[in-house]
Description:
Helix content is 43%, strand content 22%. By secondary structure, it is an alpha/beta fold. The protein has a domain at 189-448: UDP-N-acetylmuramoyl-L-alanine:D-glutamate ligase (3-Layer(aba) Sandwich). Strands 6-1-13-14-15-16-17-20-19-18 form a ten-stranded mixed beta sheet, sandwiched between helices. The termini are close together. Keywords: Cytoplasm, Glycolysis, Kinase, Magnesium, Metal-binding, Transferase. It comes from Methanolobus profundi.
Amino acid sequence: MNILCAYNANIDSIVHVDCEELTRMLEVHDNIPEKMNDPTGSISSVSDFLAGLVICMRDGTGAEWLIHDSNVFEWLKETFLERSFMRMGGNMGIMSNVLSELGATKVIPNVASLTELQASFFSRKAILHPYKGKLYNSSDLEHILHSGGSWQELIHFVFDFKKGDTFILSGKRISVPRENRFIATYDPLNFRLYMDEHFREYSLEHAEEMDGAIVSGYHMLQEDLDDGDYKTRVDESLAQLIDWKKKRADLHLHVEMGHFSSENIASYAFSTLSPVVDRIGMNEDELAILARVNDMDPKPILGMDPVAIAEAAIVLCNDHGLCRMLVHTREFVLSVSCMDEDDPELIIQAMDFGVKCAAAFACSGKLSDRDELLDMAGGIRESDPGKAASIRLAKHMEEEWNCSGVCGIYNSYQVTIVPTRICDEPVSTVGLGDTISAAIFLRELELNS
């Protein structure tokens, strides 16, 4: 399977907060309490960064603040980068690696800032980068970039803290009530849904050779872009997807949503893309945002009610011209489709494959040989709430079919649901939704080829 991937890849830099070091920093920057009383929600100084971190640690909450001053970004790099754990970040970056490791033939990613360091986090198996008219694997590209790369690093600093951590602020000891993370993000290109010129040219010239495209990154758009609004960026992306479809009408286009900072952007991206793409994937939180915007109650969706999730997915599809939606939650994965020709058994097989790959990844922290992953997943238990959700949804179907899993007709749409598999002691939980979606996407391409 040959697959295009766009748009967002970055570097995640994971830092475990050193509370003694934090206390020393707070002593030097004595304006932190004032900053905390009137938080900016963004980072233009070291004091802004410290205020955001301390607020999250004090409350046990998570947040992501954007870095607007490159000098602060340089300070964070000098202070934390060498001791951090770095990994691939960004939905598209993660999904492209999943596709490559699970057996895709050729994976072509859009990379906003193709540095030597960024290239080092891409899979060595099937990923090929278009650059100056040629395709390079990640290893070869690293050497080329080392001698002439001029891009900037796009780094999301993820500051992890745990329950019971303590630090001192203005003479008062503060204890962290629960584990969470504060993310300080410098990513001026992905926030604009940047399209690399080499990728743009290659994707248009070779779209007819591709079997599918998986696209994400719209959730990173901001309402206050300096060089145009978010609608312009979404519209430019839509034009690119339409151009691909003109080259190959049966190119399967999957869009993966994310956690939007703005309901306006979420609504515009969803409604604009729905009539053109083949499927949109999201988790229950992202579905709840779209449901609320479209005057539906988000509470049962957030409560993981499978009937409410199916109903919301069907309403959104019907109202916005989308035919297929995939909703992945911790306990189950649910698909709705308006296509009579979709084979529910193939959909169940693909969903089961995605669930197993994600479970094995959670337990091992890596994507290995496909057979090894499936063998490992066989020993991981199915989610009990997921099985209960499947039974509940089956009872509400107007017509239940004889499949290897739960499938049937609900509100005139074909609906399938598969329980997830739960790793009791996960090594990694980052990117599980992306892993499920990418694995399902790949397996469906294979089964339908």
